[in-house]
Design brief:
By secondary structure, the protein is α/β, with parallel strands linked by helices. It folds into two domains: 241 residues, 3-Layer(aba) Sandwich (Alkaline Phosphatase, subunit A); 154 residues, no CATH class. It has 16 helices and 15 strands. Helix 12 packs parallel to helix 14. It starts with a strand and ends with a helix.
Amino acid sequence: MKSIIVIGDGMSDRPIEKLGGKTPLQVAHKPHIDRIAREGRMGLLRTVGETGPADSAVANLAVLGYDPSASSQGRAVLEAASMGVELRPDDVALRCNLISLEGPRDDRRIKNHSAGHISNEEAAQLIHALDAELGGGKGPHPALFFPGVSYRHLLVLRGGWAAPGVECAPPHDNVGGRVADLLPRPVDQGAALTARRLNELYQRALPILESHPVNAARRAAGKDAADAIWTWSPGRRQPLKTLRELYGVDGAVISAVDLIMGLGVCVGMDLIRVPGATGLSDTNYEGKAQACLDALADHDLVYVHVEATDEAGHARDLDLKIRCIEYLDQRLVGVILAGLERRSIAATIAVLPDHPTPVATGQHGRDPVPVAILRPGDAPDSTERYDEEQASRGSLGMMTGEQFMRRMTE
């Protein structure tokens, strides 16, 4: 039987006073996702631990049934795979955000993690300028910058001199935080040089970005500038078993985010790139839905990831988060369900977030996520709609990622 996993990144939440103690999932109008819950079964899935990283790399690996403690390589390694950047065994890769700062020079703070959601074209010019001035593999401690999507880019420390044992603060979890308190620091003495090099790159990038014409134009237009680079999630390449090896299925992944596409590469999934997929609320939901339906012709499992709800959570924009949940329902899940019926495809479909991103904090949370699974032939449980409270009463109980994947692929 075919299987579809729909990820509404970060869409679960905690009760919000402004919503009368309800969550965005409880107030959003989402008849198609509610149908999956009503006609299927619900439960909870713990995707991040009580300690350790609560990032999307860990969470999506867990959804796919991998042990993140054994499998997580750092999200930059996964993004490199999506970008076609070949990492050598002794390379250390880091995510390199373009971010906006605020406050006086002696007390700079992170204004946002995305440089005002800078465009791909603007960001590429800045990253190429940084690579020309600071990177290019030159010097005794080579560093290379690679442009990605919007604010999400890649830094590779090459030559075997670097170590991944550096404590780096994710910028999306530290909006408003003091830069001086959050800069990279070594976890052990072996990473001291790496931390110094990262801090040097941060400092040397500031004047390059400040004077660049792209930022001058953004400031003139009243937009946030890309004031700084922010490096985080260091890691080295590690081999992972494929979904075919673990579960006997051939998969495809659909996403606008290099992290998710790279994860797909690492576990042997085919990449499907959809025109107009942005990672924001204006993404091409309908295009992703059609691509999912088409992919079922020659794949056993399709993993459809939508980033928009997570970005709304990080922005602490409650109205936008609710709207993105409704877009996911009406413009993607509804289209997929109608397409399955029209094409007479028997498929198991699941809807879930990878992790919560509560609007109250703007940070990734650690609560287990609600899961709804509609599988042909299964009797429904007593749940009536898709939300956190209903999921806690569902017949699937608290699942591990492996249990979830076994259910999706058996």
